[in-house]
């Protein structure tokens, strides 16, 4: 796994390719992505440590987005081809929220 510690990218060979952004409106971008792409399934969950997470899955495009609303972090992922990839992305996103503190 390669990590770029500024707004940028995390990736794994033959696995998910994750772009992330830290900023005031970053958390709301997942909702906007789902609104603009009708085939995206949207899930909203809350966690005591991560706050509100907005997760959009676009199976047709092998893509997903994760918005950590309370932490102001947005993740956009490509090459999400399996449930394992999706879980890996969510784990990275929820552990990566510490970048915005």
Characterization of the model:
The chain is an alpha+beta fold and 101 residues long. The protein has one domain (20-76, 83-100). The chain is built from 2 helices and 7 strands, in the order βββαββββα. It has a 7-stranded antiparallel beta sheet with strand order 1-2-3-7-6-5-4, sandwiched between helices. A hairpin with a 4-residue loop joins β1 and β2 (8-11). The longest helix is centred in the C-terminal third of the chain and has 14 residues, at 83-96. It is globular. The chain starts with a strand and ends in a 5-residue tail after the last helix. The mean pLDDT is 80.
Q: What portion of the residues fall into strands of 2 or more residues?
A: 35-45%
Q: What is the CA-atom radius of gyration, in angstroms?
A: 12 Å
Order of helices and strands: EEEHEEEEH
Q: Which parts are unreliable, with pLDDT below 50 for 5 consecutive residues or more?
A: none
Total individual domains? 1
Number of helices: 2
Count of beta strands: 7
Q: What's the story with the biggest beta sheet?
A: 7 strands, antiparallel
- Globally, the shape reads globular
- Main-sheet strand order equals 1-2-3-7-6-5-4
The assigned structural class equals alpha+beta
List keywords for this structure.
single chain; alpha+beta; 7 strands; 2 helices; 7-stranded antiparallel beta sheet; 39% strand; 101 residues
């Amino acid at each position: 796994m390669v990590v770029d510690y500024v707004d940028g990218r995390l990736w794994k060979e033959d696995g998910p390719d994750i772009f992330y952004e830290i900023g005031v409106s970053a958390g709301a971008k997942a909702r906007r992505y789902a609104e603009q792409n009708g085939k995206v399934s949207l899930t909203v969950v809350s966690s005591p440590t991560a706050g509100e997470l907005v997760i959009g899955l676009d199976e047709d495009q092998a893509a997903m987005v994760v918005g950590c609303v309370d932490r102001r972090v947005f993740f956009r992922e490509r090459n999400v081809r399996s449930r394992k990839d999706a879980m890996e992305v969510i784990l990275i996103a929820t552990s990566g929220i510490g970048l915005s503190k």
